[in-house]
Sequence to fold (509 residues):
Amino acid sequence: MTLGRLLLLVLLLPTLASAAELQDDDAFASVSALHARLKNGVTPAMLTDLYLRRIDGIDPALHSVIEVNPDARAIALATKPGTGLLSGLPILIKDNIDTHDRMLTTAGSFALAGQPAEDDAYVAEKLRRAGAVILGKTNLSEWANFRSSHSTSGWSARGGQTHNPYVLDRDPCGSSSGSAVAVAAGLAVAAIGTETDGSILCPAAANGIVGLKPTLGLVSRAGIVPISHNQDTAGPLARSVADAAALLTVIAGRDPRDPATAEADSHATDYSRFLDPDGLKGKRIGVVRAMMGREPNADRAVEAAIAVMKAHGAVIVDPVELPHLKELSEPEGIVLQYDFKQDIAAYLATRPGAPKSLAELIAFDKRDAREMSWFGQDTFEDSEARGPVTDAAYIEAQAKAKRLAGPEGIDAALAANHLDALLSPSTAPACVIDPVLGDHFFGGTSRPAAVAGYPSITVPSGYAHELPLGITLYGAKWSEPTLIAIAYSYERFAPPRHAPKYLPTVPTP
Fold:
C-alpha cells in the first residue's frame, strides 16, 4: 500500500467507524440525531438499508408496511444530505397518498391495485423536495375505515391485519394503523398518516407515539384518497414531539390544487421554534372531564398528566365544560356520508383504470371475495344512498356540525376559561383484535377538533399492562405552535416511552 493510500485510510477511519456503528438501536434515534450522523460518515443509503433490513426481519409479524419502495435504495444512493432536517432520512407514507413512481396507491383495496397514480400527492412532493427518502407505503384500515361499521382497525384486503407491536394480539387502532406501528417498531424515522376523525390520534396513542392532526387547510389533501373535504387532513406520526414538528414543517403550506390551503402560508412555519422546555409555564389548560369516566387506565393517565403539568407551571382549570359534545355525532355522520360519495368520485377520476364511482366500488367488492372476507360495506352503501350536496339535509348538517364543534364548542370553552388548550384522554388501552365482531372501542376524544377542523396532538403517557396510553391536547384553529410547546414540555417529564417487546398477549400480573 502506498503512503498516500495509507494516509487516506487513516483520515477515513473516523468516518468508517461511525458508519460501522449504525446498529438496530439507531433505528429509534431522533430526527436531529440522525441528521447529525449524516454529517459524520453515515449516508442515506446506510440508513435506508437499516430500515429495509428491519422491515424484512420484523414486519412479517406486524403487517405495517404494505409495500416497500423498489427504488428506495437507488434514491438513497443518489441523495446528498442537505441542511433540512429530513434530508436523507427514510420516511413511510400511508397507502392512501399518491406517489408517481412504481408503488401503488390503493387505500388497502384491490379496486385500486391496477396501476400507480399518475402524480405525486402534494405531501409526497414536499417530502421529496426536502430530500426525504420515501421508503414505502403503510397498511391501513381499508378505505381509511369508511367501508363498514363492523370493521377491524388495521385490516385491509391488500395488506392483511396490522398488529400492535407492544402486544401482538391487540388492535393497532386506525385508520393510520401501519404508519403508527411502523414508527413505534423503528421501521422508519417517521411516517405520514391521515385523519378524518381519530385516524392519526388513535393509532398514535395505541402504539405509544406522537400523532399530530393539523388545522384543516395547513396541509394539502391533493392526491390523497378522500373521505371528506370538510374534515380530512394529513399529519405526522413520530416517536417524539420534536420529530413531529420537523415533519409538519416540511409538509405544511399552500397548494393551488387544494383551495382549503389558501391561508396555509401565513401560518406554516418552522415548528421546531416552539420546542420550549418551559412550554408548560403559565399555560392555562382545561380538563374536559365529560370525556373521562369510560376507562380507568385512560383516566389514570390524565390524572398523572395533570399532576405533571401543575408541577411544571401550568394552570389547570378543572373541570371545563365543552358544549355540544353529544350533539356532534349525528351531523358529522351525515356530512361524511354525503362528502364521501362526491369526493371519492372526484379522486377516482384521476386514476386511470380504476372504478369511477362509489357505486362501482360497491360492485367491485361484491365480485371480489378477498374484499369482504371479514365484514361488509354498510358504510359504503349508506353513503351511496345519499343525494347530491345541494340537499337541504346536507347543508343543514354541515353548518350545524361546524358551528357546534367550533364557535359554540372549542372556541367557547377556550374563551370562557381563558385557556390555551384543552386536555382529554386519547383512548383506552388497545382492545383484542376481533375480525368476527370488529373493534371493541371504548371511545376517543378526537371528534370535536376533527369536526371543527382544529389541531390536536397526542403524547405518550405511560402504559397499562404493556399497552401504551396517551393524552390529547387540542385548541383553536392554527394553534399548532401552542400545542407543540405544551406537548414538548410535558413530554420531558412524562413517563418515558420504551421500544415495543412484541409480546404475544398481555403479561400475567
Q: What stands out?
A: The two ends are 62 Å apart (CA to CA). The longest helix spans residues 392-417. The chain is about 35% helix and 15% strand.
